[in-house]
Amino acid sequence: MEDHEILLKFQDPASRNLAFNQLVRKYQSKVYWHVRKMVVDHDDADDLTQDVFVKVWKHLENFRQDAQLFTWIYRIATNECLNFLSSKRRKFLLPLTDVGAELAAKIEADPAIAGDEIELKLQKAILRLPDKQRLVFNLRYYDEMPYEQMAEVTGTSVGALKASYHHAVKKVEEYVTRNTDD
User: The RNA polymerase sigma-70 region domain covers which part of the protein (predicted)?
Assistant: First the structure.
């Protein structure tokens, strides 16, 4: 079902629940994996995905449709991730590098995250990036999202996103190269 059809059904109180269920089915997996790439832990990603859809439910009738529904949902998910990671650092008084190390340890321990040695190094390198660079890297590299759509999701200019992605790629390359020669 197309987004505009879902939105039309959502406006009608009689079909609101059905429309929302269709929206969740359509986007739940994408949102979950977007969140999971940022927070790594399955349980955290599951909770945050649920929080995202609770916010979507609460605010969908006010959605102005000046952006795509998908981008709007991704923006909510992105903000939830960044707030969660920021809160985690404040709560445990952890510097950025410690949060990255904690997430890297979760990658190694998680049987659901399969991959060869180079994939594991790539994941560890990505986790060492600052949150916003990691977000930009994931959106561009994994989701193959165009910069214009990323700009809508993040509220950042296309030029800044390109620069951020470039810096992220350099850092990832540096880390993988440095840790492959061992």
Answer: 23-90
